Amino acid sequence: RATMKSLRFISAEAFVSNAEFARKSLSSVADNLFPLLFKASYLLEQGEVIHDLVENWPLVDFNVGKLLGITVDYQEDLSNRTCSVCLESCLTGLRDYVLNHPSPYRNRLKVVNLTGIKDVEVQFCACKKTMGRWARTQLLSKICLELLVYLEETQCDPGSSEISIDVLIDLFVTERNYELVMQALLKKCYCPLKICCVAFRSDNLALQKFFYIIKLTDPCLLRKLEIVHNVHLEMEHLEILLNSIHFPLLMSLTLPARTFNVQRFTAADEQMLTDIGEKMSEMTQLTELSMSFSILTGRIQKLLSPLKTPLKMLDVSNCSLNHADIAYLANSFHANHLEALDMSGHNIPDLYPSMFFKLLSHSSSVLRILTLEDCNIQDTYVNMLILGLSPCQKLQEFKFLGNPLSSQALKHLFTFLCDLPMLKNVEFPVPRDCYPIGITYPIDDASLCRFDHQKYESVAEELNLILLQANREDMKASTPLFGSYDAAVQETNNELGAYLIKSFKETLEKFTTSLNKMS
User: Fold this and answer.
1) What keywords is this UniProt entry annotated with (predicted)?
2) Are residues 193 and 77 in the same domain?
3) pLDDT digits (tens, 9 = 90+) for 161-186
């Protein structure tokens, strides 16, 4: 559906569409028209014009998310276009702003905010080349170091050293860009562009390097910390992290798989878990916590009860929770505030159906995202599920991949889902009757694709017809077989793959060595 453009925006498009003319004429453009021209240039992917606009930016603030978001002149939100041409032009324009600094009589740029850029699966920009979070981290770090080298070599005009610009960014660090980012952070006090890390994600990184770089990010400004794949952080390391670094503004914390494993707990470990809970309670802003694939059986209360702020997002997928854990969650003060809940990998119907529905009932007035993948939800349980979901009138996303539901049960469920007014995204499983008879759940990766694709397409068509007949074209229903899209994993999958192969090789070598010793 085409979005209406104001006459001002149409004029701005016409102006920037001739790049050569626009670049020559920028000196005659009023300061308050720069934001309008920036969005028009971004829409048309006019990289050279974007570069010159940023290089000559006359305002104190340059907030990419705000500039590309919904505006009076053009209501389409472009902040999910991570167009490589446009973003590279922004950053090189920023570099040249420092090198060819404007007249001191003009307003000086003080803050650049790159945090509003959203990485999404489908790109609408014409070039189709994206610049993800990792690449943005890499390019900004490279530009900061280049500026330092240039200023040192040229000993240029002292005016340039008067420039001090805070660049707010969500950093993404892996082994491959660690050295570059570390150097940029280490020398940031000397650089006119000051990297201010608002969110930090780390994948494929040695623990020692993670501890070193996280201290360089200025943790007291950090709002979001994600330690995700192949960072071997265990409970004792987490305790050291929380004891040695203060995170007063942290709102969101993601811990890697197997951070906790209560199966091998000693009395000292129990005390350590209590201490971690106490330390987390000092993070008074913390409202989002993800600790999937840890074994936390019977310990959720010990970890979460010290928190003074209610959680709005909780991911405890595949954490082997028991009845006591769910009972604590259902009766805790967190329950009434949960906007996003992931309980995947728990056999809800067999283990704690009534307690889970109590939790759902308490969070129903605010719940926006619910994920129940691989939860053994069968046909006999669908009516109960409908009953539990009925009060969740604010639900926007419901993901229930990997459950053994028949095509008939899915149709029944979809008919109900049409009545949830705010629901926009549904991820549903391949129907059980599309798989060979005797398939066991959870389905292993090798068998995941061995279903009757023609039958699945036919069922998917019927489900979409249910949405269509209920006038719910606004709802998107899909079956991403290998899970939801993760922009960070997508961007660094080559490095992730190489890391996994290396780990596998090392394990095989150790195994072979052990065998040789035995023989």
Assistant:
1) Leucine-rich repeat, Repeat
2) no
3) 678 999 999 999 999 999 999 999 99
